[in-house]
User: What shape does this take?
Amino acid sequence: MQDKVKENDTDHSYSWGSRFIDRHPVLANIGIILIISVIGIYAAYLAIAIFTKHGNSVQVPGVENLSYTEAISKLHNQGLNVDIRDSLYRDDFKPGYVIEQFPKANSIVKPGRKIFLYINAVHPKEVVLDDDNHPNELALKGVSKRQALAKFEELGFKNVKIVTVLGATDRVVKVIANGRPVRKTQKIPVNSNIVLEVSDGRLDALQDSLTNLEYLDSYKENHETYGNEDYDNSYSGAYESSAESVKEESEPETNNQFF
Assistant: This one.
């Protein structure tokens, strides 16, 4: 009898947790999900902290106006990486020196952060003024002065001088770079000394003036050949001859009156 009671007690004995899950399965599942979520979030936080080096930071040193090798060495000593973004050319910087950096000097960043450097090129950039596929023709010939100046500004030219020459229209005649005419599809450095020859549009007016001057010279020559003196003499001679004829005609009449 006692064995039977013990057996029954053993068969119907449940732990507190088992009874709670049996009685409230939905709440039990929700609790399990919350516990797993908390553990997952904490694990993710630890992983991110390790990956991003949470709590570690360095100060970015200033490397502008330094040579490329000096800048690389200085950044690597601070545990930073380097990335060259672009190679520019400026006359006020030495070739191969750092023009600009990002992030700027004294910025607080994580170890291993990439520092972007802009380096002054050893050689100036070369560009094409006119990419029209006629290499024997002069570059920008026939375009307006405004369009040519806009082109130079777009390509980064700084030393541009405008010279006006005699011509019929206000258009570009030729472009001279460092003393040589520039042709289409030809590359030239952006630091070249540019002379832009533009016609002044006075040729038509000058031709009209020359034509008027020829007319004036012709008039002067004719005036000298058939001048006023000869004209006066011929006119006076004609007048005298006519006066004499009138006098001869009038003399008989006067004589007849006396006789």
